[in-house]
């Protein structure tokens, strides 16, 4: 519970807590005082000997700031994932069996993680009949309908005066959004429902329990029409803040459809006044108040950590570049910037977006019409669409800087030009070593325009930067900042572990003492899984207990499986499909091999090094940058499988050499590629550019 100047109701609430029947396993009451200036602190101290009470103090105003403070303290204590964190208010009086009912509900629904409890109204004065008849009591007072049965429920109907969430959701990183909820001023509503809806999108199941009940005190001033309309205005503000940035086309800084709706509601109000229809008049006023709140917040903008950076690309699949883009937003958040992602739709983007929502990283669906990347004959149509349609969408993101990630040659150049057209400064990140390419005179003119607003360029490797400069040097301004910033690896998540090695091999059905090689990456032409399978077949002639792990999915998955079957290797090859938790697979390997035909920077290579697994890769740009001077791995020829088999075979036959290589690789990963080091480089790159 968070409380601010709550002494007027808190004593009655705490007296009710003193009468609570304890649930099985006991309970603790954690109250965060949010800068109270009345007698709240002294009142809490007076109950210290009567309740299992712990008090914290958070001086920064904001209910969600206080609740997040409490969550950090609660998570610091030992506990199980299915423990229940129950949230309530300082004016909600529980029934005597409240905690036991919560315990029974959570025990009966082990597959659910978010729970709503029953909330009744404790009226300070008799409510007027029009209020009970017309006002949305849930949105206005956070009370639940008495007819709501036990069972699955829409997460937006879980109210903050009586809700519960299992510990595991918060241990996974979820927190309350501090831009919403009471903060000492005219706040935007949605404090708890933003969290519950986000958890539901993430896959957590939501359940309503009628048994655990509280009575929410409603003061005399809160039954007046002015208060109800003020809550509608706050609800409208919160609704805007929960929308995905850039979702709708705008006019005068607000969504166009909302302006049309506002005019229709005004017409409806005029009609209700003419007909003297009191009920319709109230509803029109309520809807208009909600719309005014939405429009007010749209003009005011979103709550920001700082300057807003939009990270975007011409993306087509979830791969290393997309993971780096999400990491870029994390680095930006850590540096005090606001940031979000805008990408073309691809398979798996929805599930990925749900995972990122846990970190309050937004993913919007957006792409510039491809007049660089698309077919030549439709270039004029695409650029017209960019000017008249896509530019409005881009401006709607309200970005201060656009970061365009280039995965290949000109893939992203349309977005770069669109940022220039919208008069937005930009930066570029280069994620591959691009082959030479030529541009038409028409495209050259657009490139000169696009690069005129580029403030900085960084590449993930020296080779990637050199290849990029060989193509784009004529268009780059002398003042543009240039840098090389490698991809990073979480060295706490990826680390050597004998236990992880054993568990990974058991999950994959591998003998504990077998030799195991493998690759983590998409099964695509770039990664050449067929070459790795052929190399594996050659190595098995010398090492009959050798196994191969292919962790990833992609267009060549079926062909790779067919090749394995055709070569009679099926018993010794494991296809895992896409793996999100790579750190649970990598420790199973004795060697990690990347047989790519080209690389910008092999993220899997440094993940292997961080796990103490020797890394082998073909001598292509990107991989060369990592392993050329490394003691944590080695390079093999791109197309000579005989030489590659000889070198890899020599390493497999020498466990002591592999052990030394693994230790050296771990040291290099920590020193050069850990997120702390890379994050510092990213922050330095942006300094002064935004």
TrEMBL record:
Residues 319-493 form the Glycosyltransferase subfamily 4-like N-terminal domain. Pfam families: Glyco_transf_4 (PF13439), Glycos_transf_1 (PF00534), Glycos_transf_2 (PF00535). It comes from the Bacteria. Residues 504-667 form the Glycosyl transferase family domain. Residues 7-100 form the Glycosyltransferase 2-like domain. InterPro entries: Glyco_trans_1, Glyco_trans_2-like, Glyco_trans_4-like_N, Glycosyltransferase_grp1, Nucleotide-diphossugar_trans. This is Glycosyltransferase.
């Amino acid at each position: 519970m968070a409380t601010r100047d709550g002494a007027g109701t808190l004593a009655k609430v705490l007296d009710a807590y003193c009468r609570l029947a304890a649930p099985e396993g006991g309970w603790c009451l954690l109250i965060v005082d949010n800068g109270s200036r009345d007698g709240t602190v002294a009142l809490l101290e007076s109950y210290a000997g009567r309740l299992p009470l712990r008090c914290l103090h958070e001086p920064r105003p904001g209910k969600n700031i206080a609740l997040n403070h409490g969550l950090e303290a609660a998570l610091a204590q030992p506990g199980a994932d299915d423990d229940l964190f129950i949230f309530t208010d300082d004016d909600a009086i529980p029934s005597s069996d409240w905690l036991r009912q919560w315990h029974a509900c959570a025990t009966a629904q082990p597959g659910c993680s978010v729970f709503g409890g029953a909330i009744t109204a404790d009226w300070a004065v008799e409510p007027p009949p029009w209020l009970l008849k017309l006002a949305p009591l849930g949105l206005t007072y956070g009370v639940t309908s008495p007819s709501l049965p036990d069972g699955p429920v829409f997460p937006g109907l879980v109210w903050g005066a009586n809700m519960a969430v299992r510990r595991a959701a918060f241990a996974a990183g979820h927190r309350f959004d501090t831009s919403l909820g009471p903060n000492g001023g005219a706040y935007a509503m949605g404090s708890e429902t933003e969290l519950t809806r986000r958890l539901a999108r993430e896959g957590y199941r939501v359940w309503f329990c009628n048994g655990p009940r509280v009575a929410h005190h409603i003061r005399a001033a809160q039954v007046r029409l002015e208060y109800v309309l003020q809550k509608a205005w706050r609800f409208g503000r919160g609704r805007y803040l929960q929308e995905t940035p850039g979702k709708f086309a705008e006019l005068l800084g607000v969504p166009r459809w909302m302006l049309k709706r506002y005019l229709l509601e005004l017409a409806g109000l005029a009609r209700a006044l003419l007909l003297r229809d009191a009920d319709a008049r109230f509803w029109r006023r309520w809807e208009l108040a909600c719309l005014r709140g939405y429009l007010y917040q749209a003009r005011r903008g979103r709550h920001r950590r700082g300057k807003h950076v939009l990270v975007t690309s011409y993306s087509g699949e979830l791969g290393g570049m997309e993971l780096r883009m999400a990491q870029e937003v994390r680095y930006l958040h850590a540096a005090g910037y606001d940031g979000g992602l805008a990408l073309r739709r691809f398979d798996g983007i929805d599930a990925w977006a749900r995972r990122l929502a846990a970190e309050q990283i937004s993913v919007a669906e957006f792409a510039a019409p491809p007049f660089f990347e698309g077919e030549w004959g439709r270039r004029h149509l695409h650029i017209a669409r960019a000017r008249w349609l896509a530019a409005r969408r881009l401006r709607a993101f309200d970005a201060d800087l656009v970061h365009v990630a280039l995965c290949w040659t000109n893939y992203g150049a349309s977005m770069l030009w669109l940022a220039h057209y919208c008069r937005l400064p930009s930066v570029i990140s280069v994620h591959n070593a691009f082959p030479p390419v030529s541009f038409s005179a028409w495209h050259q003119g657009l490139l000169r325009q696009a690069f005129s607003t580029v403030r900085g360029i960084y590449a993930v490797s020296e080779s990637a930067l050199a290849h990029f400069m060989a193509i784009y040097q004529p268009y780059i301004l002398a003042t543009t900042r240039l840098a090389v910033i490698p991809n990073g690896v979480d060295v706490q998540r990826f680390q050597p572990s004998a236990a992880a090695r054993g568990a990974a091999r058991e999950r994959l059905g591998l003998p504990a003492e077998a030799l195991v090689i493998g690759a983590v990456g998409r099964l695509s032409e770039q990664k050449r899984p067929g070459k790795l399978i052929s190399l594996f077949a050659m190595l098995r002639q010398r090492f009959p207990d050798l196994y191969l792990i292919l962790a990833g999915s992609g267009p060549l998955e079926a062909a790779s499986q067919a090749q394995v079957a055709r070569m009679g290797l099926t018993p010794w090859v494991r296809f895992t499909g896409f793996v999100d938790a790579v750190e649970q697979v990598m420790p199973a390997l004795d060697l990690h091999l990347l047989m790519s035909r080209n690389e910008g920077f092999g993220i899997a290579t440094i993940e292997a090094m961080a796990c103490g697994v020797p890394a082998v890769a073909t001598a292509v740009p990107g991989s060369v940058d990592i392993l050329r001077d490394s003691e944590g791995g080695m390079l093999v020829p791109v197309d000579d499988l005989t030489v590659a088999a000889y070198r890899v075979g020599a390493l497999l036959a020498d466990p002591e050499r592999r052990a030394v290589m693994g230790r050296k690789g771990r040291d290099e990963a920590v020193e050069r590629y850990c997120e702390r080091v890379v994050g510092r480089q990213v922050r330095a790159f942006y300094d002064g550019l935004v």
